[in-house]
Design a protein that fits this description.
CATH architecture: 2-Layer Sandwich
Distance between the termini: 46 Å
Order of helices and strands: EHEEH
CATH superfamily: Signal recognition particle, SRP19-like subunit
Number of helices: 2
Radius of gyration: 13 Å
CATH class: Alpha Beta
CATH topology: Phenylalanyl-tRNA Synthetase, Chain B, domain 1
Oligomer: single chain
Shape: globular
Number of strands: 3
Number of domains: 1
Strand order of the largest sheet: 1-3-2
Strand content: 5-15%
Structural class: alpha+beta
């Protein structure tokens, strides 16, 4: 049954290795190479989105690539932001976090 109260954010939406046909939803310039579930979850928390482990799944398989484990988070629609805005802000958060980690090493 479809849940109309939440937005689903799959890891494949921001994966730079995928084509638009395979499920990427952001521009390749702002996408992330092989994002992990923990990076997506932490970026959503940093963005101020209401995410919990109860409303996420790190072992789910994206329908277009059912042979690969992906993962998703569910965000409540109370934030009144478009899905594309959320996706671009999450991918930019992950990119900045990766840059900070690389500089710290």
């Amino acid at each position: 049954m479809k849940d109309y109260d939440h937005i689903i954010i799959w890891l494949d939406y921001i994966n730079k290795n995928l084509s638009k046909k395979k499920g990427r939803r952001v521009k390749r310039d702002s996408a992330v190479f092989d994002p992990t579930f923990s990076e997506l979850f932490e970026a959503a928390k940093d963005e101020g989105l209401d995410v919990t482990l109860d409303h996420s799944n790190d072992h789910a398989r994206f329908p277009r690539r059912a042979y690969v484990r992906s993962g998703y988070i569910m965000i409540s629609k109370t934030f009144r932001r478009q899905k594309s805005e959320i996706l671009s802000s999450l991918s930019s958060r992950i990119l900045t976090r990766r840059i900070k980690n690389k500089r710290a090493q």
